[in-house]
Amino acid sequence: MSFDVLGDLNWIAVIVAAVAYFVIGAIWYAPPVMGNRWMAAGGIEMPADGQRPGPGIYLVPLIGSVLSAIALGMLAEATGTDTAGEGVVLGLVVAIGFALAISLVTATFESGKPKPMVWGALNAGYHMVGIIVAAVIIGAWQ
């Protein structure tokens, strides 16, 4: 595989997949969904009333979602993934092999968090769902 594959990507599929991954994160980390559990497990406190987080809290995950969708698109091209079903397989391989593994290894060393493994599992869950959905979108549009 080379970076020449970037010219072969279905960029609309990549962009839609990136937006879907980002939106899943916005829903996942919303307080009534997983956000309150995630904050408690990580020892994270909401800012005082009236304080809003800076734009980085949205920009960094968006950039991460775009980079992940591009990588998934490249892997889809390299593996010949061109159906939704094959996208599920690609998504599972990447999600388990990278997102789950990295999140749980990282959580193992987050001893300063009240519940590091819960925190890691919640992060892993988001990335697994996001990657699988993004891979299905990319695979279906090939």
Report what the structure shows.
The chain has one domain. It contains five helices and no strands. The protein has helices at residues 11-28, 31-42, 56-79, 84-108, 116-140.
Record the SSE blueprint.
Blueprint: H1 11-28, H2 31-42, H3 56-79, H4 84-108, H5 116-140
Please give the share of residues in helix: over 70%
Name the shape in a single word. globular
The Cα radius of gyration reads 16 Å
Structural class: mainly alpha
Number of strands: 0
| Total tally of structural domains | 1
Question: In percent terms, what proportion of residues is strand?
Answer: under 5%
Main sheet record: none
Number of helices: 5
Compute the separation of the termini in Å.
Answer: 17 Å
SSE arrangement, N to C: HHHHH
pLDDT < 50 runs, ≥5 residues? none
Explain briefly what this protein structure is.
The chain has 142 residues and is mostly helical. It has 5 helices and no strands.
Q: Which key features would you list for this structure?
A:
0% strand, mainly alpha, 5 helices
